[in-house]
């Protein structure tokens, strides 16, 4: 008799040292999408307790900001070690709470480990410029300083990686962190904090309350958003959420990283390696049951290869194994909940009304009727109309035929979101056109690799209604620090700006 997900989750949390009352005595249930069962009940924070956490985090920041950056990096190095030791347990908890397959759960934890490695190196590279000055006997430079409390709000679909992308960078930059995970995934939030606590204990002399987790829904997020002691709000989730969070943070002149919805597309040109395109599109569209921000949702296929590629794609869809992601050889797991299922069904009926032909999309009875499993859907559309222009967070791939690449790129860009994009081609001109200033308008533009996923070394994020934020690699760290331009006069003169003579003798 297999162990219940509930006892499995509880055993993992107890191995991490999370006190049982934190996940058994609360008023807010946490459900596993795998079976629909409640696996824990947690105690939500209030606006007051969140404000207390923020005040404590601010006190921690005041001490942490003067710790040398490479030493701060040492904490993140230890955190990476703890994550390596915790990988199997945390990956499994991700699978239980978010419905990911074991390899996806472990893959998410690996992203956490990778960002720690990146951040450790970064802790010795937080450098600014020395800039040529027009004044004799002067030196001008820029320096980067810690910013303050970083408030992280995250979505259910990457319950642990997004926090670590923010936290590893924030910590080496000299900041403290208060994290509000999705109300759908509080347990992984508690587990992550416990893992970081292990690293903090080994590190020894970090200030208390350097990183904290607050549990709850939008109201708790709002308490982070509106608090002037939160210098940076890094919010990942729907564009709907970003529309509220962005203006509220702006109103108090806070800083914001918005990582919002995507409506990602691929273009398959006549010269494409179709075997490669088939695999990349199938994985990009169906992986994680279409619940990645970078999921492939639209596909423009050239008329010359449409009748070759699309039937093969439909075949791949028909044969894909959907089921309990914790069992072997299952590629597509459940939707997160009933709302996600209802959203998918209404998008499919709107697509039919707009002239689309739907293949798949039916609900499958797997496990219990409290869990929502679906056959991934391919919808052949006459043009980019109806629900195609919006993100539906479910496995629906809209496929359209094109004849002119310039028009396909224009259609590709004619949606509100701008996260990830891909072209499949072996033609150098087509590739360069897609990557050029007149090409894809997304934050991520790929060639012969799908839209889904990203390496931590690059800056991650998107344009337009995706929010414009960047996190993770490259120089995304700059959003987590404040920049000062310093001018030093080592001469005996005081040349005034603009040649002004100001004689006060
Ligand atoms: P969601 O917007 O419902 O919730 C995301 C988080 O925002 C949750 O923690 C939620 O409690 C919080 N929240 C909601 N309203 C808020 C408010 N008014 N004030 C403060 N906090 C608030 O999103 P979801 O359903 O959890 O996740 C799916 C969405 O997230 C999709 O649109 C997906 O594309 C997007 N996403 C984007 C990225 C990215 O990097 N661009 C990554 C993952 C997910």
Question: What features would you describe in this structure?
Answer:
The active site is at residue 259. Residues 26-483 form the Aldehyde dehydrogenase domain. Its EC number is 1.2.1.3. With 505 residues, the protein is α/β, with parallel strands linked by helices. The chain folds into two domains: 5-260 and 467-485, 3-Layer(aba) Sandwich (Aldehyde Dehydrogenase, Chain A, domain 1), CATH 3.40.605; 264-459, 3-Layer(aba) Sandwich (Aldehyde Dehydrogenase, Chain A, domain 2), CATH 3.40.309. Helices cover 39% and strands 20% of the residues. The protein has 14 helices and 23 strands. The strands form seven sheets. The chain has a seven-stranded mixed sheet with strand order 12-15-16-11-10-18-19, sandwiched between helices. Helix 1 runs antiparallel to helix 4, helix 4 (69-98) packs antiparallel against helix 7 (186-203) and helix 5 packs parallel to helix 6. The chain is globular, with a radius of gyration of 25 Å. It starts with a helix and ends in a 16-residue tail after the last strand. It binds nicotinamide-adenine-dinucleotide (NAD).
């Amino acid at each position: 008799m297999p162990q219940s997900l509930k006892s499995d989750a509880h055993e993992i949390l107890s191995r991490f040292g999370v006190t049982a009352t934190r996940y058994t005595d609360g008023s807010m249930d946490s459900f596993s999408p795998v079976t629909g069962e409640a696996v824990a009940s947690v105690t939500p924070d209030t606006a007051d307790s969140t404000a207390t956490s923020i005040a404590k985090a601010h006190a921690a920041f005041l001490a942490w900001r003067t710790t040398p950056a490479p030493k701060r990096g040492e904490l993140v190095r230890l955190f990476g070690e703890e994550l390596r030791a915790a990988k199997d347990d945390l990956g499994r908890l991700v699978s239980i709470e978010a419905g990911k397959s074991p390899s996806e759960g472990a893959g998410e934890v690996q992203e956490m480990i990778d960002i720690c490695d990146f951040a450790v190196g970064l802790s010795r590279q937080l450098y600014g410029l020395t800039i040529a000055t027009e004044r004799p006997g002067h030196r001008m430079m820029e320096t980067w300083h810690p910013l303050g409390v970083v408030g992280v709000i995250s979505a259910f679909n990457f319950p642990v990686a997004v926090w670590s992308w923010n936290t590893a960078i924030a910590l080496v930059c000299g900041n403290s962190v208060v994290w509000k995970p999705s109300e759908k995934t509080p347990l992984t939030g508690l587990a992550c904090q416990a893992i970081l606590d292990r690293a903090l204990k080994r590190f020894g002399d970090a200030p208390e309350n350097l990183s904290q987790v607050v549990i709850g829904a939008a109201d708790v997020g709002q308490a982070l958003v509106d608090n002037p002691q939160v210098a940076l709000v890094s919010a990942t989730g729907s564009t709907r959420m970003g529309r509220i969070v962005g203006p509220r943070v702006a109103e108090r002149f806070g800083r914001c990283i918005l990582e919002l919805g995507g409506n990602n597309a691929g273009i398959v040109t006549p010269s494409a390696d179709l075997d490669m395109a088939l695999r990349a599109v199938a994985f990009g569209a169906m992986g994680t049951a279409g619940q990645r921000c970078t999921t492939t949702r639209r596909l423009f296929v050239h008329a010359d290869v449409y009748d070759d590629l699309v039937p093969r794609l439909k075949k791949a869809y028909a044969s894909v194994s959907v089921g309990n992601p914790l069992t072997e050889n299952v590629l597509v797991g459940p939707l997160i909940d009933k709302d996600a299922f209802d959203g998918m069904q209404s998008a499919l009926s709107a697509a039919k009304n707009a002239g689309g032909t739907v293949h798949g999309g039916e609900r499958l009875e797997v496990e219990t009727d409290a869990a929502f499993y679906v056959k991934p859907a391919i919808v052949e559309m006459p043009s980019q109309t109806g629900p195609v222009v919006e993100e539906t967070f479910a496995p629906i791939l809209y496929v359209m035929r094109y004849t002119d690449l310039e028009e396909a790129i224009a259609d590709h860009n004619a949606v509100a979101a701008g996260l990830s994009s891909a072209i499949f081609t072996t033609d150098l001109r087509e590739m360069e056109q897609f990557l050029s200033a007149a090409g894809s308008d997304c934050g991520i533009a790929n060639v012969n690799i799908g839209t889904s996923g990203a390496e931590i070394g690059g800056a991650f994020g998107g344009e337009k209604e995706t929010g414009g934020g960047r996190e993770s690699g490259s120089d995304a760290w700059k959003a987590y620090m404040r920049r000062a331009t310093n001018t030093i006069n080592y001469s005996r003169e005081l040349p005034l700006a603009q040649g002004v003579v100001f004689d006060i003798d």
